[in-house]
Write a structure and sequence with these properties.
This protein is mostly helical and about 120 residues long. Helix content is about 75%, strand content about 0%.
Amino acid sequence: MNSSTSNQLFDLSNINQVFRGNQDMINNVIQLFLENVPEYIGEMEKCVERQDFISLYPLAHKAKSSISMIGAKNMEQLVSTIEEDSRNHRNQGGLGSLVQELRAKCNLVNEQLRCFLDTNQTV
């Protein structure tokens, strides 16, 4: 596993331990993240546009599982705030900016994960 990047926005040590270094399994988890989390965030953005904050909570909860699997702590804290605020009907005026911030962080993490996959493909 390449860990030379000090600005890496994810930490795969947990899934590396769970899968005992099986790079194929780790790559599969990353691929699922890359496919699912942007979709969840897209749905979250639609909820904010519709001001449907009740539907925001389950999407944030689903995204949080995938985010925690890849150890993206900055995203995990943010999605937890979105989840809690939407579930408890708090900060409805600020949820849109939190979701936008989550999208921006997701884009950066996705870019890094794609680079990781490019350098850690198994044959």
